[in-house]
Amino acid sequence: MPFVQRFTVSYEYPVWFGEDVFSPENAALVEAVSRREPSRRHRLAFVVEERVAECFPTLARDIARYVEHHGARLALAAPPRVVRGAEECKNDEAAVSALAAWFDALCLDRQSFVVIVGGGALQDMAGYAAAITHRGLRVVRLPTTVLGQNDSGVGVKNGVNAFGKKNFFGAFAPPFAVLCDSRFLRTLHPRDKVAGFAEAVKVALIKDAPFFEWMEARATELARFEPEAVAELVRRCAERHLEHIATAGDPFELGSSRPLDFGHWAAHKLEALTAFELRHGEAVAIGIALDTSYSVASGMLSAPEGERVLALLSALGLPRWDARLDARAPGGARLVLDGIREFREHLGGDLTLMMLAGIGRGREVTSIDVARVDAVIDALRERASGRAAAARPAAE
């Protein structure tokens, strides 16, 4: 009989929501970093997204001032390193190696901290670089986008793209802490503001009907990006994601079920088909429209509920169609359908997709009718064409 090794590892990390994280009087960062070893002086290396540095010209000075103010417990390993963000950084084969070389040059060890200030893509790339350096440097995430603060930045995954596939290389590495500063959201491009709402719609659809109803009631305020409404959306969405990671029984996705990837099988492929011209949240919104419509066509979801989903996406300013859904291989098959196969591979071989049985109620399926998906895409195109025709001014 073989000896069976068994052990349990407990993880915990604080997730903070507030404003002005680098104000010297704000203790959130220093307390998060020093909570396990309060008497130690901790070394920090900051990785800052280029666009964030441009929008906040005093950021490097603010970071230095903050660390100096808390000098008894914090030490700056080097001036902040400014790097490119967005999906470009996840597609750059040299980006991870360049960061790892910098970590090496700074002599960072496993008790040193990498503080990542940027959007979800930079969090993924820099987090992966930290995860594979010395088998894991401590990471503090400061996500600066709606999508980063309400979804990817509070989770345990990171990675980069390869071979034309999303997150082909990656690791599960829980952060040491996550600090969400609402001040960073104010400088976002309007597309990025809205795109982040898609993950909130997703998690509400599969887990939280009252949250969905709240978004329906506050859609106008959210579309105007009113701070109070956005702050509540970000927090509620993050809480649902954190709850799932903690209670679903599979935080490192050892099985084939990934409920939080509702709408993502098509989204990941669509991002690649658009050469990442589409924001991730925009692609997810289209994926939600597709899978919601598929759920209706399959008899799992009522037509009125399906219309509510599509209406909310529209009210928030999220897309429900992109012409690349119609891109076809030489044999005539839609290229986006390759996303089903790629998603199955990413899951580990068995196909398990989340569909809808009702608003707030997901239903897992283990097979998908490709002909029905084709018909649903045709219907979405027709709806989009109808909207476009209705929007055109009448001929004089």
What does this structure look like?
The chain is of the alpha/beta class and 396 residues long. It is 47% helix and 15% strand. It contains 17 helices and eleven strands. The chain has helices at residues 28-34, 50-55, 59-69, 86-91, 93-105, 120-131, 146-150, 190-195, 197-207, 209-217, 219-223, 227-247, 264-273, 280-297, 303-316, 338-347, 370-391; strands at residues 15-18, 42-49, 74-76, 81-83, 113-118, 138-143, 157-162, 165-172, 177-181, 353-358, 361-365. Strands 1, 2, 3, 4, 5, 6 and 9 form a seven-stranded parallel sheet that branches. It has a two-stranded antiparallel ribbon with strand order 7-8. Helix 9 (197-207) packs antiparallel against helix 15 (303-316). The chain is globular and about 65 Å long.
Report the major sheet.
7 strands, parallel
Q: Unreliable segments (pLDDT under 50, ≥5 consecutive)?
A: none
The number of helical segments is 17
Give the H and E element order. Answer: EHEHHEEHHEHEHEEEHHHHHHHHHEEH
- Helix share bin: 40-55%
Quaternary state of the chains: single chain
